[in-house]
Amino acid sequence: MTDKRRSDRVLGDRLLVSTRKGLFTIERGGSRWDIAKVDFLGDNVTLTLADRRDGRCYAALDHGHFGVKLHRSAGDGWEEIAAPAYPPKPEGHEETDMWGRPLAWSTARIWALQGGGDDQPGVLWCGTLPGGLFRSTDHGASWQLCRSLWDEPKRRQWNGGGADLPGIHSVCVDPTQSHRVWIAVSTGGIWFTEDSGETWQPRGNGLRAEYVPPELTHEPNAQDVHCLVQCAAAPERMWVQHHNGIFVSSDHGRTFAEISDAAPSGFGFPVVVHPREPDTAWFVPEIKDEKRIPRDGRLVVSRTRDGGKSFELLSDGLPQTHAYDVVYRHALAIDASGDRLAFGSTTGGLWVSENQGDRWSMVSHTLPPVYAVTFG
Amino acid sequence: MARVNFTANLQRHLSCPQAEAAGTTVREVLDNLFAENPRARSYVLDDQAALRRHMTIFIDGRTIRDRVHLSDAVAEMSSIHVLQALSGG
Lengths: 376, 89
Hints:
The complex is a heterodimer. By secondary structure, chain A is mainly beta. Chain A has a single domain (99-367), classed as YVTN repeat-like/Quinoprotein amine dehydrogenase (Methylamine Dehydrogenase, Chain H, 7 Propeller), CATH 2.130.10.10. Chain A is built from two helices and 28 strands. The longest helix of chain A is centred in the N-terminal third of the chain and has 6 residues, at 3-8. By secondary structure, chain B is of the alpha+beta class. Chain B has a single domain, classed as Beta-grasp domain (Ubiquitin-like (UB roll), Roll), CATH 3.10.20.30. Helices cover 25% and strands 24% of the residues of chain B. Chain B has a five-stranded mixed sheet with strand order 2-1-5-3-4. Chain B starts with a strand and ends in a 5-residue tail after the last strand. The chains are: A mainly beta, B alpha+beta.
């Protein structure tokens, strides 16, 4: 896409919605949001990145029997590019998952796609199941497994959370120092590098896991982080939606404080933070954790504007009876202005707000199950 | 040379026409085929070059036994079918 064509499209006026049956492009026309086109119709699109640095888009597809694939578009159609692939497992190397089964060194899912810093054109990060982090320096034409993290002994203690295999679902690149990167793992806590992935340290003191034996409750590597986000204007502020609660950090993820009384529940998958207001964040609460449905069949988004001291429940425009929508960790999005939000659900609902969640408009309630939503 | 047919379901994603290739094992035949059609490789084999979990290969009507090393023998005029299980919804 040329710079001219990019500038023709107002940022935040387009949504890319990854679903079980295709990639839906939603565009704003007048005051309405409508489906403008569908790509990969019938195929399982699990995640999409709209790279704001150059306008390129990347779509991860899971073809099941045929494996995980990655496609790229510069605005003129999609082309298949290399998907991250694990190196040959050394002869004699034995490694098992938490169930005692051999752990395959093979990409089972692309679970995070993130562009590098503004000073790193072409750099992409990709988190996968079974726990490998990959980096590309050529717009996804090739990928390198981050061996320092893969070879980290504690990586072999990671477990599956929602899936059988552990996976990296969140990648945060420091907007002021792009060599500083945080990742989050389900389950494996938060890890930090300050040298673009050469070395890694665990982060996340203060995270608490209530589902493990007591001696592991505060072990950073045992934490089931569902989603990790970072405020663009105040990168020291990070928010975590965790398996058993909401946590907030004011020191780049070194320590977290638990928000213990978030209503109606501390359970959920996604979190987004306002790009300039670090105390403002949104969540989609659900009944924890075996049921995973909205409380009382009422779909709500919760918002804090005071760093988690209090939460408002936002329901205007959302279904309030017999709604059983689940919103996955990548399916809640905020645009660069901080005013527009959008989310999609497992039951095919898609809603957009143009006023920070005060009022929601339904775009569709008949989409395939929604896995990811992003502006771009 | 062995004659290789790929499942029609694969044709939806990429061009994979019937082809002939030399080799005395499944691995050799597929390596020769994928040298001509590299994109097809990752659709059939995983990152470790083993047969993908729900894929199967028949040689002259028999499923192969070595899904990891693909060492099953292939005869000069063998007929090979690369197929997959059907599931989903």
